[in-house]
Structures are given as structure tokens and as C-alpha cells.
Amino acid sequence: MSNTQVETVTSGADKFKLVAAVLLLVGALVAFYALSAKGGLVQWGALLALLAAALLAFFTSESGKSLIAYGQDSVRETRKVVWPAPKEAMQMTGYVFAFVVVMALFLWLTDKTLEWVLYDLILGWRR
């Protein structure tokens, strides 16, 4: 059993930042559609400005900071992976393709054999 802890938003400032981020996101969508008569530049400008403000509010909260830390940890762990050499990768890809072809032939042969046994031998249906 894993010993993971669930973090909840406890500080008032964090709750305010998250609520502000959600309200800014909703405001961005409302502004985009409400400003459709003003032209595309104003419409898209308002959308992008409010989305940037929402992202700023989210990433300054503890939830946003922990998301950034998680992303950084993921990148750090990805760099630790020992990737195969190009020659080895091509060989393994070839093995996978060969296995798929062999399995496809096996399943086709099994299907045709069962079809022959059931329809021709047992039921006597000739096509």
C-alpha cells in the first residue's frame, strides 16, 4: 500500500488565487464571445490577456507551484532513462513487426481452419 498524502488547499490566499484563476478563465471565455462585434483583434486580445492572468494566478498558488515541481521532476527522471542506440531501436522495431506478421498469419490460418471444419465438415455448407 502506498503512503501518498493528499494535499488540500488550506490557506486563504491559495483559495483566493484558485478562485481568481477560475473566474479569470470564465471571464476570458465570456469576453471572447461578448466582444465578437468589436473585431477579431480585440476579441483575441481580451481572450489571451485574461488567459495569461488566469495562468499567472494559478501558477502563483501552491497547487500551481506543485504542478511546476512535478513537471521538473518528470523531466529530471526522463533524463535518467537509458535510451537504446538507434541500431538497437531499429532491431527491436523489426522484431515487433515480424512478430505481428507471424501472429496475423497464425490467426488467419486458425480462422480459415475453423471455418473449414465448422462449415464444410460439420454443417456441410458448401460455398
TrEMBL record:
It comes from the Bacteria. Keywords: Cell membrane, Membrane, Protein transport, Translocation, Transmembrane, Transmembrane helix, Transport. Signal peptide: none annotated. InterPro entries: SecE_bac, SecE_sf, Translocase_SecE/Sec61-g. It is found in: Membrane. The chain crosses the membrane at residues 18-35, 41-59, 89-109. The keyword Membrane applies. NCBIfam families: PRK05740.1-1 (NF004371), secE_bact (TIGR00964). PANTHER family: PROTEIN TRANSLOCASE SUBUNIT SECE (PTHR33910). This is Preprotein translocase subunit SecE. The gene is secE.
